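User: Please predict the structure of the protein below. I'd like the answer in structure-token form so I can feed it into my own downstream comparison script.

Assistant: Understood. Taking the following sequence of 327 residues as input:
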Amino acid sequence: MQTTARPVAASPVPPPVGLGLWKIEKPDVAGLVVEAVRVGYRHLDSACDYGNEAEVGDGIRRALATGLCRRDELWVTSKLWNTFHDPRHVRPACERTLRDLGLDHLDLYLVHFPIALAYVAPEHRYPPGWFHDPDAAHPRMQAARVPLADTWGAMEELVRAGLVGHIGVCNYGVSLLRDLLAYAGVRPAVLQVELHPSLAQEKLLRFCRDEGIAVTAFSPLGSPSYVPLGMATESDSVLGDPVVVATARAVGRTPAQVLLRWGVQRGTGVIPKTSRPERLRENIALFDFALSAEQMAAITALDRGRRFNDPGVFCEAAFNTFFPIYE
């Protein structure tokens, strides 16, 4: 395992379009990663909690072995899970991810949620998930008293050890970012948050621009990933919104490409998830057209503050624990 400092990439900003690996079934992952690299993706967004990092690693190895790209051309992101927030567990968690991915360093490591949960040993259950004991009569989440500042200090040590090039956070709002910037020895390079036309987060984006924090949008198409989970309905989709459909017709692209282009043109990265090779090509074909200022404004005006990935809702519904972080 690499333990000496390595040069950090000149830019802390991931490539603007990446492949999100949440909810990709294990048998599909390796082949999908290879195909993604083949058609031009250089940004892979993974996480311990997705439960498929070993398969992602297999795909990376195959892509590198067949000469589709070099390791230094590939940006790989992973995330620290909630049960590993205690500083004693941060480095072992990162090292487990590195072993699964077959890498000696990550380009970016993110705190997945500002939620500290009680430790679950990897030999007992991995990935640990949200329940402390899923076999209990009434399973619940179990919070841990770990300050976010302590977790961040351990994340900084990963940079100093050469295990990661950059560090950042997910699911933080402005108040938590302000607090983080007040004590960070290594500033967060990236914020990854839910962003789409139904949740435009204009103030958060402006704050990050002012502070030089790159933003990556997860769920950039909005509701589709959440409908099968019961966290959204078909009516929540903006893919069929008249504004989006008219814009797609005007620029000769699909509604999905319009939404992804809107995200990229705002200056954010986007990490759409797909299991379909044809969608891989569609989702990355965003750089030979542009939206007008009027089209951008019309799509932004669809904002209604609709958050689909909200622990204050899904933790109670799925994990029997009320755990708001945004209110």
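That's the full token string. The longest strand covers residues 164-170.
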